[in-house]
Description:
Distance between the termini: 33 Å
Number of helices: 8
Radius of gyration: 17 Å
Amino acid sequence: MLPIVGFQKTSLIDYPERLSTIFFTSGCNFHCPYCHNPQLAQRNSDLSLLPEELIWEHLTIRKNLIDGVVITGGEPTLHGAKLANFLQRVKEIGYLVKLDTNGSNPALLKKLIADDLLDYVAMDIKTSLNKYADIINQSVNIEQLSESIDLLKLSSNLKLIELEFRSTLHPLLHNEDIFTEMVNLVAGSPRYVIQTFKNQITLDPAYSQTQPFTEEQMKNFQKLAIRSVSECLIRE
């Protein structure tokens, strides 16, 4: 069973234009210092798993009330076949599926899309490719990230999935030059969603001491992005 450690029964914002239920998986292979879900990011978290029967009961009862299911984390693609099996059952019930991912597992993404288990994918772009290791605090396979970006763009162009790229911005890690390189990665995509980090809680407590970008600064980032993507939204 997919290790689900929490869920939100109803959301109006996590699956665009759809009413959804969100399931949170534990564990992440990235360790972004500004992450606002540190318990989910830590693979050795003491969070309890949701009982499987509770999950399927909820989805069965709400079948005619909820449009879609969002799988987020943590990083859901860490769980391979467990994720695929979970999505298969969700699709059999009749839900649309949105997956949030950091893009580190292009092989699994390719299989899930080919098996028609995904309707919407949101991939995080952390920074420019040459600075990824600095942000996630460990080595990273840049080729795999690039492969995921290209795969998702192509799948979106072929109307196999809906797609958004998204980025969380932190003043200590992002500036206009870096952001321009990030925009180049997602150029031509249908939607780019940006947000400033939340300083209430961060994986590295030191990063919570910085003030988030202002509304004006975020709008400047938006202006830079809108030249290269069909739509750039600022998420509050």
